[in-house]
Structure formats: structure tokens, C-alpha cells
């Protein structure tokens, strides 16, 4: 690597790190607000909020790194143009093609890493995030308080005399009204504890009696230990393998859209590198303030195209959008940079 390449990379890396920190912080705040909104439904402590945030990190990186790379490259080259350093380089015979090759290589590496993130890390983190939320929802469904009437566990009305923070109960009474299939039942137990096994709640009763009221009379059964399960509507699912997860793109349109859109976001650094060079390398005397509008147009054009084609035909959208962006920016690069410098 020659001195010019090291010089360009130094300026780029400094700006990239600063912009990434700012954009990552803003994106993290947005995701964290979404996470904290769940506390209105389920109770979570600080560590559990942190766990959910970690599960969202792979997706956060996919959204922040491509935009940061593009903006940092545009501004880096524009700042060099502002100081007339790029003009000096080209005057001394430095080929702008070398700059393009340098940053195309970096963008290709970044896009490759992001694609691995999309294909490998995001499916796992998304399933872990979903399972964790369902686990907490199932846990929140059973929050019985002492000396309160009208509380339910599955089909049973529950009354308890005493409870502690570890969900240990004393003086437990359960009542089930008669149905077409079952007779009226009453259960009295000395102690009880609640277990949550992968989202399935189990009430473990100790030292109690079961009373069943039939037409013939009352039947009594004493027990040492008894288990009552409550099956939630949504069960914490088993983690799918990477292949099983992405096989769903052939049957699930939403999953196909997610894959298409995330792949396009991952390819954005490579697709937009020539656009960044065309925007950032300017003759400052004639172009002093158009860079930010052009960056906004380039990003908006790509995202709108990615959204529309991913919705219409997600299977072909990554290739089509990438080629449209890359080829159109290549023509602009040829006209603005190669023809002038």
C-alpha cells in the first residue's frame, strides 16, 4: 500500500469511526425505546433489557455500517477536494482509478461481512429475541397475589393466603366449575410453587386434598404432590437451524421481503462506492454545497428502489437493485471523474 492510499485511509477511518459512533448511538436509542415499550406488557429488569438489546445488535449493525461507510467516504473525499488535495494528486499523475479500486475493495469486504451477519447472526438473534419475549409474556400471565379473589390459572379459579417474591405460595385453594365433561372440583393445598419451563407454566402443589362433587356425592383424594399445567397460546419455539429458517422465504412473503431488503442494505456499500466518489471528488470552486443533497438523493433512491422491488419480487430484487445502482453510478463516475481527471 503506497503513501497516498495510507493517507486516504487515515482520513477516512477517522471520520468513519466518529460518524459510526453517532449513528450507532441514535439507532441504539431508537431500538432501546422499542424494547422499553415492552415493559408496559411484561416486567423486565435491567439485565433482561440488556439481553434484548444484545439480540438486536446484529440488525443494528446492518442498518448503521452501510450508511456510515457511504457518508464518511463522501465527506472524506469532499474535505480533500475542499483543500485542493485531490486536484494536486491528479495533477501529479495519480490515477483516480486507484482510489476507486481501494474503496471498492473495502466496500466489498464490508458487504461480505454484513451478508454473513444477515444470513447467520440475524436468524439466530431474531429467534432468541422472540423466544425471550414469549417466555416473559408466559411468565407474566401467572402473577397471583395473596388475599385477592377472581384470579385464574388455566381453567381454575385460585385463592392464596400468602406469597413471597420467589413465587412460593401457602394456603392455596383452586376451584373448577362443572362442565359437560367434568364435574365440579375443589383443590386445597398447603404449599405451591410455580415453574416456567420454556413458556409452559406448571403449578406444583404439596400436601393437599381434591374434592370432586358428583351427583352421587363428594369424593375426596389426598395427595402428597400434584402438578397442574397451563398451556399458553404462544409456546416458546425451538430454534430453527439457519437452513430451516431461510427455507421459509419460499412460503413466507414477509420473511422473503426481510431477506431481500437486508441483503440490499448489506450490498449498499459496494453498490454506492462509485456514487460516493462522484459526489465527493469535486472542483470546490464550482461545487461548494451540493454534496449533502446529493448524498440524500443517492441514499433515498437506493432505499426506495430496495423497498419497492423487495415487496414486488423479493427473489430477484437483490440482484436487480444492485445492478441498477452500480451501473448507473458507474456511468456517473465515468462522466464526472474519469472524463475530467
From TrEMBL:
Q: How does it sit in the membrane?
A: Multi-pass membrane protein
Give the GO terms filed under biological process for this record. Answer: lipopolysaccharide transport
The organism's place on the tree of life at top rank:
Bacteria
Instruction: Quote the protein name from its UniProt record.
Output: Putative membrane protein
- Segments traversing the membrane: 20-42, 62-81, 102-122, 261-284, 291-310, 316-333
Q: Which UniProt keywords are listed?
A: Cell membrane, Membrane, Transmembrane, Transmembrane helix
Q: Which GO terms describe its cellular component?
A: ATP-binding cassette (ABC) transporter complex
Q: What is the source species?
A: Sulfurospirillum halorespirans DSM 13726
Location within or outside the cell: Cell membrane
Amino acid at each position: 500500500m503506497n503513501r497516498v492510499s495510507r493517507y486516504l485511509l487515515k482520513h477516512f477511518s477517522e471520520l468513519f469511526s466518529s460518524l459510526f459512533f453517532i449513528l450507532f448511538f441514535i439507532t441504539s436509542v431508537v431500538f432501546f425505546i422499542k424494547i422499553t415499550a415492552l415493559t408496559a406488557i411484561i416486567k423486565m429488569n435491567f439485565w433482561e433489557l440488556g439481553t434484548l438489546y444484545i439480540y438486536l445488535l446484529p440488525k443494528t449493525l446492518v442498518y448503521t455500517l452501510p450508511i456510515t461507510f457511504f457518508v464518511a467516504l463522501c465527506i472524506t473525499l469532499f474535505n480533500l477536494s475542499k483543500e485542493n488535495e485531490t486536484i494536486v494528486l491528479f495533477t501529479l499523475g495519480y490515477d483516480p482509478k486507484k482510489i476507486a479500486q481501494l474503496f471498492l475493495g473495502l466496500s466489498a469486504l464490508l458487504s461480505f461481512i454484513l451478508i454473513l451477519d444477515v444470513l447467520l447472526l440475524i436468524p439466530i438473534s431474531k429467534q432468541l429475541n422472540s423466544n425471550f419475549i414469549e417466555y416473559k409474556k408466559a411468565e407474566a400471565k401467572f402473577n397471583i397475589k395473596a388475599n385477592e379473589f377472581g384470579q385464574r390459572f388455566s381453567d381454575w379459579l385460585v385463592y392464596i393466603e400468602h406469597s413471597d417474591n420467589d413465587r412460593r405460595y401457602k394456603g392455596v385453594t383452586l376451584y373448577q366449575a362443572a362442565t359437560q365433561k367434568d364435574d365440579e372440583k375443589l383443590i386445597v393445598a398447603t404449599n405451591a410453587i410455580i415453574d416456567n419451563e420454556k413458556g409452559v407454566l406448571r403449578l406444583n402443589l404439596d400436601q393437599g386434598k381434591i374434592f370432586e362433587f358428583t351427583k352421587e356425592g363428594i369424593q375426596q383424594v389426598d395427595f402428597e404432590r400434584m402438578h397442574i399445567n397451563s398451556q399458553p397460546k404462544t409456546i416458546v419455539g425451538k430454534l430453527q437451524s439457519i437452513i430451516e429458517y431461510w427455507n421459509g422465504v419460499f412460503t413466507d412473503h414477509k420473511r422473503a421481503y426481510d431477506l431481500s431488503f437486508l441483503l440490499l442494505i448489506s450490498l449498499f456499500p459496494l453498490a454506492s462506492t462509485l456514487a460516493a466518489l462522484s459526489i465527493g471528488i469535486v472542483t470546490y470552486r464550482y461545487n461548494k454545497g451540493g454534496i449533502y443533497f446529493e448524498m440524500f438523493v443517492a441514499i433515498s433512491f437506493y432505499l426506495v428502489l430496495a423497498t419497492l422491488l423487495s415487496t414486488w419480487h423479493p427473489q430477484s430484487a437483490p440482484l436487480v437493485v444492485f445492478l441498477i445502482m452500480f451501473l448507473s453510478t458507474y456511468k456517473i463516475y465515468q462522466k464526472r471523474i474519469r472524463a475530467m481527471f
